[in-house]
Amino acid sequence: MTLSLHSLSAAVAVGELIEALDLRKGAYGRADLGGGIFSRCQFGEADLREADLRECVFDQCDLRGVLMAGALLRKAVFNRCRMDHADLRSAMLHGAVLTECQAPHAQLGQAQLSMALVSKTRLDHAVLRGADLDAATFSETSLLDVAAEEAVWRQTTLYQCGMQHMSWRGARLERVAFVGAVLAGMDFRGLALQGCQFLQADLRGADFSEALIAGCNFQQARLDQARFARVRGRHALFCQAEGSQVDFREAQLRQALFTGAQLPGACFAGADLFQVHLAGAALAGADLRGAELAHADLRHADLTQADLRGAGLMRTVLHGARTEGAQMSDRARALETDPDLAQAEQWQPVAG
Predict the structure, then answer these.
(1) E strands, the chain, where?
(2) In sequence order, what are the residues at sequence separation of 6 or more whose Cβ sits closer than 8 angstroms to the Cβ of residue 259?
(3) Within the chain, where are the H helices?
(4) For residue 352, what pLDDT band results from cuts at 50, 70 and 90?
(5) Higher-confidence residue: 346 or 294?
(6) Residue 14, class by beta-carbon neighbours within 10 Å (0-12 exposed, 13-18 middle, 19+ buried)?
(7) 3-class DSSP state for residue 162?
(8) What is the pTM of this model?
(9) I need a surface site. Which of 68, 127, 238, 351 has the fewest CB within 10 A?
(10) Contacts of 132 (CB under 8 A, 6+ apart)
């Protein structure tokens, strides 16, 4: 059964449940259907452009190829819907909820998705170009090969999402939380990532070259062969991060924290590490040539076989550091092990 626009609007207006109707290719552009409840309806290729669909519920509906560009979908609910190739460009989806939907190749360019909740949904190959994702939450959602260029991600949460081959060029990410994320091989080059959270993220082979990462949190992240060359990362946190052959060449990391980081063979050549906290860090074989380490804290760090030739070590703390085989041309200006402090650290209470 296919309803006319007038009949459909009237049914919605009286609160009638619209169930199991075939509305495919229907012409409902600019219709007032706010608050409608649709269950198991077929909307394939229906025209709902610029329609008022505020607080609508779409339960187990077929929305493949539906035209919803410019539609008002504030606080709309999509539950277990098929949305392949749905056109939602410039749609207002503030506070919308998508749960267990299939939406590969969906078009969401310039869409307003602030405070939206997307859970267990497939958005592979979708377009989020220029979308506003302020305070949105993506949970257990597949974002494979999504085009997110120039999108605004502000206070967005991405929890256990797959984001392989996602494109971020020109995007702005501010205080975004990547929780349990697999971001291996991702390209973040040149992006502004201020205050983002990468706690325990898999960043093996990821490229952050020349990105702004000021205040970003990489605690306990996997960083094998990741690239941070020439990043601007004042106050960044890398505590307990792990990875071999990480590239921090010429990075600006003033007052960053690397406490307990495990970074054997890392390259910090030419990096600005003024007042950086590297206490307990494992930096065996690291390349620190020409780095600025004035007032840095390297107490109990492992610097065996590290190359610090040309590095500035003005009042750099080397208390208890392992330096066997390390090359330091400016060691005379560093602060060596404090005997009294070393004795205090070795103190043990007497039994009984």
Answers:
(1) 17-19, 37-39, 57-59, 77-79, 97-99, 117-119, 137-139, 152-154, 157-159, 172-174, 177-179, 307-308, 327-328
(2) 239, 240, 277, 278, 279, 280, 281
(3) 5-13, 339-345
(4) low
(5) 294
(6) exposed
(7) strand
(8) 0.86
(9) 351
(10) 111, 112, 113, 114, 151, 152
Instruction: Answer for the pair 47, 27: CB distance below 8 angstroms, yes or no.
Output: yes
Residue 311, number of CB atoms within 10 A of its CB: 27
Q: Is 10 in a helix, a strand, or coil? A: helix
> For residue range 138-186, what is the model confidence (pLDDT) as tens digits?
999 999 999 999 999 999 999 999 898 999 999 999 999 998 888 999 9
CA-to-CA distance for 272 and 231, rounded, in angstroms?
Answer: 10
DSSP letter string over 282-293? B-TT-B-TT-B-
Kind of pairing between the strands at 157-159 and 137-139 = parallel
Q: Characterise 163 by phi-psi region: left (phi > 0), alpha (psi -120 to 50), beta (else).
A: alpha
Q: How many residues does the chain have?
A: 352
Phi and psi at 210, nearest 5°, equal 65, 15
Are the C-beta atoms of residues 78 and 58 closer than 8 Å to each other?
yes
